[in-house]
Amino acid sequence: MKVFIREFPAVHLAIGVIGNVIFFVGSVLFIWHATEDVAIWLFIIGSAGMMLGAVGQAFYTYERHRLNGAPGEAAEARLRG
């Protein structure tokens, strides 16, 4: 699982973007009373996609920092030493 998270950051971005689009479509569907039920489900699905994308991105960032050090760490070491 860690390899997948580390090697495919674009997947997390894609899941988040698709979640945002679904969330937006759900928002628009709330305009009409007849589409309220669909809007509710799209809200739920879109929110889940946004959450999964954000959690995946957080794991990716954590793994990258764990393996490579925090951003700017190498530059600070060069300045000190």
UniProtKB/TrEMBL annotation:
TM helices/strands, residue ranges: 12-32, 38-60
Organism (species): Amycolatopsis australiensis
Keywords recorded for this protein, A-Z: Membrane, Transmembrane, Transmembrane helix
Protein name as annotated: YrhK-like protein
Cross-referenced InterPro entries: YrhK_domain (IPR025424)
Source superkingdom: Bacteria
Residues annotated as domain YrhK: 8-58
